[in-house]
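Hi U.,

Before I forget, here's the chain from the pilot set. I'm dumping it here mostly so it's searchable later in email.
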Amino acid sequence: MVGLHAELRSPRSCAGSLRFSSRLWFNHREDARYASFMDILILGGTGFLGPHLVEQALAKGWKLTLFNRGKTDPKLFAAERYKEIVQLRGDRDPNKDEGLKSLEAVVAERVKEGRPFDAVIDNSGYFPRIAKASAELVAPATQLYMFVSTISVYTDNSIAPDESTAVGTMEDPTTEAITGESYGPLKALCEQAAELACKGKTTVVRPGLIVGPGDDSLRFSYWPVRVAEGGKVLAPKQPDPYASRVQFIDVRDLAQFMLKLVEDGHTGTYIANGPAGPLSMEEMLAGMKASVSDSVEFVWADEAWLLEQGVDPWMGLPLWIPQGKENDGVGRANCAKAFAHGLQCRPLAQTSADTIADFEAGAAARPTTFAWGSGRAPSISRVREAELIAAWNARAPIVAS
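Structure:
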């Protein structure tokens, strides 16, 4: 396994695009008073993280320009309340269709008028060639360039990383195919391209597993949804349950942190992950159980036995990584710098409840063939889960010598 500190999500990674209630995106505070006005450009904006950035920036009264292909949910920002957003169409790849032409015109106008963006947020860069093209284009027309990377840039899972930890590399930096092995190193190369183009004014954010409303990878979502169903729930029991850690970040908290970095003008690199304190798998599931009303019984099966039964870590039972020296750093990324610069993580119970509500609200948008453990959906089927629980309970007891 490579880069399992991580998010480990390729873009748009699960069956069906889920839509979710805007009430879950951002809690508008009636008494909020925002100190500054910002004029920002978002490269992308219609995927998972983008809409949360848009909603929170609008709530601050900021001016927004979006540049994207207009193919992912093209009507997302068509309502009247989005009329002030400047929406540019094009392609991040300058070699495709109209490429960056619409953005080139805006950049030229702003440079001529001496009216740069306060910040450009690139949350849709996956290949260094494309990230380089965008960063070089907007460099003279922005005061800050923020690149959304990933904690998957760290490919040695035995080490608990911080911002200074060496990132992964790849033999062929021109590769433009995303795999479990290439995703992190490609993102690291994108970081380097952005920093070279926008020297002295680059901010790199390295989030872990991004969760919450709108997450169509469903990895985190599996657990609160399954716990909410009640009954007997199969869970991995590790040799030392409290020695392992899980980390993730609510997409709304990530968006809020990113906008705070923009507002405060902070450059540099930040690992954005949560929660603020250590959290084991058992503690996470107990917290989810406490937030639902249905009766739940966890069936804790030894992880060695689960592996023997062919249950895959991370995707078979989401967020589970077997214990071992090779995985000692997983779930232990040092996020002190991000917390010192304003990262705040909401309670697990809130993320869990909103994830359940989002999953239920998205039922109509999911394919009729959707099933856990089928296609690109994570976890195992309910039938397989029941079989494994029965087999675990029926195993011969160990007689102490």
